[in-house]
């Protein structure tokens, strides 16, 4: 989903109404299913900052994007989405990511620790 703007606007502009999204949570269908997944990611990583590791690679209908995200709640280092694009709209998408929750939030890091410690959490976006 789009980093800027609303989820509803992104869905309306870029996704087919009958889009199918696959992730380890299962199959989500339509704008309502895609919106539910976006809301779940927002709950796990509130106000996350996203960075894209690759330029969106598109070759005809298939497309691929690698991404990372970080928020006060945790991070994703292995985000990868694939897309099927038909008639200018996303008709299919797969999502992979592992959410690593901060065991000690960065702003409350115990004294003496030189690095952040993570506790992996699989939301189902793997």
What features would you highlight for this structure?
126 residues; alpha+beta; nine-stranded mixed sheet; 18% helix; globular; disordered C terminus
Helix-strand layout with pairing:
Elements lengths: L6 H8 E9 L2 E4 H15 L4 E4 L4 E2 L3 E9 L3 E13 L2 E8 L2 E4 L15 E4 L5
Structural account:
The two termini are 16 Å apart. Helices cover 18% and strands 45% of the residues. Residues 109-119 and 121-126 have low confidence and may be disordered. It has 126 residues and is of the alpha+beta class. It is globular. The chain has helices at residues 7-14, 30-44, and strands at 15-23, 26-29, 49-52, 57-58, 62-70, 74-86, 89-96, 99-102, 118-121. Strands 1, 2, 3, 4, 5, 6, 7, 8 and 9 form a 9-stranded mixed β-sheet that branches. It is built from 2 helices and 9 strands, in the order αββαβββββββ.
Structure summarized in a few sentences:
By secondary structure, this protein is an alpha+beta fold.
Rg computed from alpha carbons, rounded to a whole number of angstroms? 16 Å
Residue share in β-strands: over 45%
Oligomer: single chain
SSE series:
HEEHEEEEEEE
**Main pleated-sheet profile:** 9 strands, mixed
- Residue ranges: pLDDT <50 for 5 or more in a row? 109-119, 121-126
Q: What's the tally of helices?
A: 2
Quick one: how many beta strands?
9
- Give the overall shape: globular
Summing up helix and strand content along with how strands pair, one would put the structural category as alpha+beta
Distance between the termini: 16 Å
**Rounded average pLDDT:** 84
Helix content: 10-25%
């Amino acid at each position: 989903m789009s980093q800027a703007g609303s989820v509803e606007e992104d869905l309306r502009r870029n996704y087919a109404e009958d889009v199918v999204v696959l992730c380890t949570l299962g199959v989500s269908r339509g704008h309502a299913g895609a919106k539910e997944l976006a809301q779940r990611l927002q709950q796990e990583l509130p106000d996350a900052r996203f960075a894209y590791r690759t330029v969106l690679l598109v070759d005809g209908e298939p497309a691929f994007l690698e991404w990372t995200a970080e928020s006060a709640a945790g991070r994703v280092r292995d985000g990868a989405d694939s897309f099927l694009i038909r008639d200018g709209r996303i008709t299919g998408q797969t999502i992979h990511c592992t959410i690593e929750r901060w065991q000690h939030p960065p702003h409350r890091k115990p004294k003496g620790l030189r690095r952040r410690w993570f506790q992996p959490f699989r939301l189902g976006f793997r």
